[in-house]
Amino acid sequence: MLLRLINNLVFVVAILAFGSFAYAKNVCDQHLSQIKMIPFDGNAGVDSHYDALKTAGPEAVPCLIANVTNTVRKPNPRPNPSLGDARVGDTAVYLLSEITGIDTVKFLPRKYQDLYPEMGVLVVDKYLHDRAGNRRILQRKLSHWYRTTYLPSVRKGAT
């Protein structure tokens, strides 16, 4: 009887966890490419797609990391200019920074970090657009950070 109760509890927790992940992935997939404006100060009410992802918060992070390599062109949603054509992956990187507070510049090679004082956040665009493989490299670094640093801190904060 106790074993059956434990199995049922584990099943319910697994369903809830999967449902939460599926919701966040769905929100990310539905809204990321549709964002038309990322507000300069992160204010809500400017773009409903942006607001939906910000509301999903930490649950959207895995999907955003998965989209770093998404090179589908889209209009630049940021109030500052970008270098080259804006891509869905660029938007994912900037939203990751906003949702998690991570400084994505720290994940770039030293030569790009050295350009930060002169270029500001545009150095991330430069890195992403300089070579096709750079997106995959950044994605791997972000995935590692997510598994080793961010996810454990989110879990710790939830207890």
Q: What is the C-alpha radius of gyration, as a whole number of Å?
A: 18 Å
What's the count of strands?
Answer: 0
Element-by-element helix/strand order: HHHHHHHH
User: What number of structural domains do the residues give?
Assistant: 1
Q: Helix fraction?
A: 55-70%
Taking pLDDT < 50 over at least 5 consecutive residues as the criterion, the unreliable ranges are: 10-21
Distance from N terminus to C terminus (CA atoms, Å) equals 28 Å
The average pLDDT is 84
Strand content: under 5%
Question: Which helices and strands, and how do they pair?
Answer:
Layout: H1 2-31, H2 48-56, H3 61-66, H4 88-100, H5 110-113, H6 116-119, H7 122-130, H8 133-158
Helix pairs in contact: 1-2, 7-8
Written account of the structure:
α7 crosses α8. The longest helix is centred in the first third of the chain and has 30 residues, at 2-31. The chain has one domain (2-158). It has 159 residues and is mainly α. It is globular and about 65 Å long. The protein has eight helices and no strands.
